[in-house]
Amino acid sequence: MDIMNYCKGDEFEAYDYLGAHVGKNGTVFRTYAPNASKVSVIGDFSQWKELSMEPVGDGRFFELRVKSAEEGMRYKYRIYDSKGSFIDHCDPYGFGMEVRPGTCSVIRSIKDYSFGDDEWLEFRSDCRDKPMNIYEVHLGSWKRRSDEDSEGWFSYGEIADELIGYVREYGYNYIELMPLGEHPCDESWGYQCTGFFAPTSRYGTPAELMELVDKCHKNGIGVIMDFVPVHFAVDHYALTEYDGTKLYEYPYDDIGYNEWGSRNFDHGKGEVRSFIQSAADYWLSVYHFDGLRMDAVRNMIYWNGDEHRGENRTAIDFLRSMNCGLKARHPSAVIAAEDSSAYPKVTAPVFDGGLGFDYKWDLGWMHDTLDYFRSAPMYRSRDYHKLTFSMLYFYNEKFILPLSHDEVVHGKATIAQKMNGQYNAKFPQARALYMYMIVHPGKKLNFMGNEIAQLREWDEKRQQDWDMLKYPLHNSFREYIKELNYIYLKHKALWYDYDPTNFEWSDCNSVDRCVYAVRRKAAEGDILAVFNFSDWFQSGYSVTVGEKYDAELLLDSDDQLYSGTTPHGKTAFSSYGGRLTMDIPPFSGRMFLLKLKKEQ
């Protein structure tokens, strides 16, 4: 590692030098503690007695080879400050940690697993003009063990085959895993991290996680990981005041802490920049993840996410630098921003003044859409343009449409529960909502449990309510989502999200009727979707499709097959004079394939 590059903030592979590296002659430990008066390593290999480390490089790094230190042994660094006091810290660059409540780093080799995904990596893309249907997963609560003498977690290896089979069967082509860096508190869901290079040991070893990713690739599934570049856990044994000074964090409390009570990274320090971007590169390079979803980007753009406090120019510069470096090293990887601000050009190239992300979550679309479906039918004419507003700004960024974990916790209710009305009324509206999501431009993201119309908010300590599938409304809802996903993966018209010529409103003016018609265009055939979001049956609705086109029904959300009211195979419509005419049941959507008529 080039020490000068590290200190300037230009290093992307600091993990190759720092941390605990297993070799033929033991393990080499290295850490960066520029303000420490002394550093020792302690661990299982020394019966927890101090082994003094030697200053190396320019004196800011400390190193020691320990012949008796082996894979699987625990260790910490005992770091003395300038006054001679010490705290035992886990390794910032450690490749493993013990299960909480333990706080030690664990020696792990990250070079023993042999991937078999060369073909996948060679041909993968950022999906700009391809389908991206993401299934967001919290590994600890998708499914859990029932035995009482365990924590309930399946390991990475144990869950791999079942999760992959499920994702393939139900029409998703990407999995997004909530943060996997080691974290002490289950309730933080991984967002308050202590081990930025250590996959959480709750679910097994680094090699098992590599195998999970490898198996996904062999089955045609991409894997994105949630990554936290903004802040870190306050626990004293981790990054907090690592060398006796505020090394990774800001020196001032007003900007040093955030709304979650965790510590903010000081992105102006070179060693912090090298640390974060090396961690990002680590997951892409070592574990073969296909992308990263960067959490809480707003809190980097503005001081603690507050526009009134102004832009954090240093953090913005870091985002640009990191994204440039990551894309240069991994051109086909996906770097997505979870950003709730209206800051411009988040997905524009850095050379054009942008932040350099590939995608941004469209939280505006999510809020407006869910607000609309919460409202009583009598008010939907008033709220009509909440569903059209998103297309006024859509082409400003490359958006992902998220119905994520954030929308099914903290008293917000699940997606199905958000639908207006009583139990039976929620399902047709949820079916129509998801059809609207599929035909709206933007890549798709759906949190686990949404596809079974779960009625209980997500709890990280409980598995999804799979037993709900014994009820016809829930089981048929999942089958409907499956069919919808298959249609999305099959039809190219639904992929060209960022080409303005691909989309048109065929009807966005039927305010009193609460009817919409959306058309997506492609040479292989157009997709037309017609929606009635009112609570009354609408007869004789007509929409222009053009005389050159034949219409084929792809999906009716009101089909009895999916617990609707229209007998299966009996959806009626007529095409004459370039117009498509039909009756539309309440709370329903119909999707058609429009193909050019064959010349006689």
TrEMBL record:
Checking CDD domains in the record gives: AmyAc_Glg_BE, E_set_GBE_prok_N
- What SMART domains does its record include? Aamy (SM00642)
What name appears for this protein in its UniProt entry? Answer: 1,4-alpha-glucan branching enzyme
GO CC terms of this entry? cytosol
Q: Which UniProt keywords apply?
A: Carbohydrate metabolism, Cellulose degradation, Glycogen biosynthesis, Glycogen metabolism, Glycosyltransferase, Polysaccharide degradation, Transferase
Q: Which organism is it from?
A: Ruminococcus flavefaciens 007c
SUPFAM superfamilies listed in its UniProt record: (Trans)glycosidases, E set domains, Glycosyl hydrolase domain
Q: Where are the transmembrane segments?
A: none
Catalysed conversion reaction:
Transfers a segment of a (1->4)-alpha-D-glucan chain to a primary hydroxy group in a similar glucan chain
Q: In which pathway does it act?
A: Glycan biosynthesis; glycogen biosynthesis
List each copy of the Glycosyl hydrolase family 13 catalytic domain by range.
136-478
State whether keyword Glycosyltransferase applies.
yes
| Entry annotation: catalytic residues | 295, 338
Which GO BP annotation is one of this protein's? cellulose catabolic process
Any idea what job this protein has? Catalyzes the formation of the alpha-1,6-glucosidic linkages in glycogen by scission of a 1,4-alpha-linked oligosaccharide from growing alpha-1,4-glucan chains and the subsequent attachment of the oligosaccharide to the alpha-1,6 position.
User: Which Enzyme Commission numbers does its entry carry?
Assistant: 2.4.1.18
Q: Name one GO molecular function term.
A: 1,4-alpha-glucan branching enzyme activity
Concerning its family, UniProt says: Belongs to the glycosyl hydrolase 13 family. GlgB subfamily.
